[in-house]
Amino acid sequence: MNSGYLRICLEFRGGWYNAAMTLVEVTYELQSPLTEQQLRHLGEFANTYGLRRFRIDESKKQLSFEYDASRLRETQVAHALGQARIAVARRVN
User: Fold this and answer.
1) Using one digit for the tens of pLDDT, what is the confidence trace for 50-71?
2) What b/e readout covers 1-23, taking b as 16+ CB neighbours within 10 angstroms?
3) Which domains, and CATH codes, for the chain?
């Protein structure tokens, strides 16, 4: 199999997969700044299937997650926050 054909197949598969994703972003207001240990826990959670990325806005004290809702539920995101002992004041969106 030549490398050009393989590249085209992989590009097609990648485009197909991304088109099927249902991306959702959820943002929480934090009760306090995150510690190093909490950040490590978030890094471990980032390996969870379906989580695309997370962002921390320190000026607003907010933590946002973008995830594939067809593979991960918001309750699982909330559970991961609890496991990392991250206290949230409320959900912003």
Assistant:
1) 788 889 999 999 999 998 888 8
2) eeeeeeeeeeeeeeeeeeeeeee
3) 22-91 (3.30.70.100)
